[in-house]
Amino acid sequence: MRLARVMLAADVAATFELNGSCLASGEVVTERSTFGANYTKRPVMPKAKKPCPCGSGETFKKCCRPLLDDLPHHVRPFQHFDEDPEGTLRLLRAEFTRYQIWHATNTVPWYRSDAAAARELLEIDTEALGDYLGQLRYVYEQLDRLGEFDSVLVQCEDLIPTPRWKAIITRERLVAAFAAGGDPKARHVAADIPVDDEYDAELLSLVLPYRDDLSVSARLRLIDRVVDGSDDWEERVRHLTYRGLLWELHGDPEAAKKSYAEAVESLPADPDPAWSHVVVIEALVLSGRSNDRESDLERALELCERYLAENADDAALHQGLRKSRADTLKRMGEDARALEDLKWLVEARGTNDDAIQLGQAYVATEQYELAPDVLENVAWGELTPGEKYDYAHSLFGLLFGFDDEDLRQVVRQRLEMIDPEFPIWRETRDRLLLYLAKTERGRLPGWWATIRESVILQPNVFGFGIDLSKLIDRALVKTRDDAEDSAHRALIGKGDGSE
Predict the structure, then answer these.
(1) Domain extent for 248
(2) What is the CA angle 53-55-57, rounded to 5?
(3) Residue 456 near residue 471, CB atoms below 8 Å
(4) Are residues 320 and 468 in the same domain?
(5) Phi and psi at residue 236, in whole multiples of 5°?
């Protein structure tokens, strides 16, 4: 529907710019002496010395104006992008300017005189101009000049006086921030977006992952708005999965299982791997783990292998698929195979999360001597709260392989520096700190070896950890008659460990 409306908008703009006559073959008569000569109204042109509407920063006279007389209709700016990227940008900016002139000439006067009657045409213009912004962002990104795109957004911020246009500008600013600076910059932009506004599901879905400052209940409400307001199965699956994670971390495993199952039920039979592979595989993996469905894990691994074979030439997609396969293999207990993918990822892109995951995998496979070099390269100050939590637990895992007092001090410091949001995280952190304070140097509890794969080797999805407390409690119950019972009791706060 949206594509049809945008195509209609382009046809409307062309009709107003030409005299409307067509040849029998359907070709449009394009003879004209100057831009706008065949408009049904005198075109509302920007002043020559004013900033060009395309947002280039140059004056209209020197930027898009010279191109408009000879600008072909139905421009295909990406047709020669590889050969002439700068020319593609100039054509695209001129096409964007031409549509703005048509909008100012025809839609704006009608909207001012009869807003209700002009509403549909205004909506068409909003979507069409929003698509132009998205294309401009893409070209600026390909040219490594995203800093210039911000001036485009500033120039066009008040172009259309509707909430939908405001949401489009906000969306483009957020997407551009992520493309230019990754998570830190995107989080900075997202922090200023008032999520209580009546934004649509598309924008809320972009904002939500960057708003760790919101309470769990507030995030759950936003997720429900996205799920209820979106017709896109990918958006629904992604946010149903996210909702399951939040419920799990907030201590309601039954609600988490239900949400994961609903996410899997929303998956199409044959999802398109070009853009949905991460969403599909995460949903299957989390549902398989939470609902004890081995079939979901097997399907996730099968899709990983298939997508990798089908997209061997797409470097970015290949990296994402290798990470997804590593997560799936870890859930299935295939530690060695997961380790190979993680080592490849650290060499290929080396994000903080990749390094933490590789360090965890080395600990879980008892290759302790390899983990420190990986973890030492992680920049603590750049980590998200969830990554700090996982990193601190990776260091704790190293204690199983090294009898080192300095390492114990570092582990204690890192654990004390994290401020977990979720009750499960706080409880686990406090238990580990209590253990470090109560036990003798180098003595780890006997249950550690039996659960380290569960504690350490869990994939970090959306930057969140897992429920460790129940695993620990089960291990404590099983070993309560062990010779180290006093240390176990101290760990859970029952007794001081001296009896």
Answers:
(1) 232-332
(2) 110
(3) no
(4) no
(5) -60, -45
Q: What is the CATH number of the domain that holds 290?
A: 1.25.40
Exposure class string for 332-345: b at 16+ Cβ within 10 A, else e: beeeeebbebbbbb
Exposed/middle/buried for residue 199 (C-beta within 10 Å: 0-12, 13-18, 19+):
buried
Which H or E element spans position 432? helix 423-438
Per the CB < 8 A criterion, the answer to whether 431 and 438 are in contact is no
Q: Of 332, 363, 387, which residue sits at a domain end?
A: 332
- Kindly state whether residues 302 and 426 are assigned to the same domain: no
Residues 283, 364 within the same domain: no
Q: 260 with 318, same domain?
A: yes
What is the sign of the dihedral through the CA atoms of 97, 101, 106 and 111? positive
| Last residue within a domain, chosen from 135, 161, 187 | 161
Closest C-alpha among 408, 397, 353 to residue 371: 397
Tokens at 460, concatenated: 């970090």
187 occurs within a structural domain = no
Inter-residue contact 171 to 203 (CB < 8 Å): yes
Within a domain: residue 467? yes
Question: Which H helix or E strand runs over 425?
Answer: helix 423-438
Whether residue 406 lies inside any domain: the answer is yes
Whether residue 304 is found in the same domain as residue 445: no
Residues 310 and 391 in one domain: no
Reported pTM: 0.61
Local confidence pLDDT in tens for the 499 residues of the chain: 343 333 334 443 443 333 332 222 233 334 444 676 656 678 889 999 999 999 999 999 999 999 888 777 666 767 777 788 888 899 899 999 999 999 999 899 988 899 888 889 999 999 999 999 999 999 999 898 988 999 999 999 999 988 889 889 988 988 888 888 777 788 888 888 887 777 777 788 788 777 877 777 888 888 888 888 888 888 889 889 989 988 887 778 889 999 999 999 998 887 765 557 888 888 998 898 888 888 999 999 998 898 888 888 888 888 888 998 998 888 888 878 889 999 999 999 888 999 998 998 888 888 989 999 999 889 888 888 888 888 988 888 888 888 788 888 888 899 888 887 776 777 778 777 877 776 554 455 544 444 443 444 343 322 333 444 554 555 445 444 444 445 444 444 444 444 3
Note whether 143 and 54 are same-domain residues. yes
> Quick check: is 340 in a domain?
no
**32 plus 134 within the same structural domain:** yes
* Phi, psi angle pair for 270, to nearest 5°: -135, 80
> What's the domain count of the chain?
3
**Phi-psi category of residue 42: left, alpha or beta, with phi > 0 → left and psi -120 to 50 → alpha:** beta
One-letter amino acid at 110 equals W
Q: Is 497 left (phi over 0), alpha (psi -120 to 50) or beta?
A: left
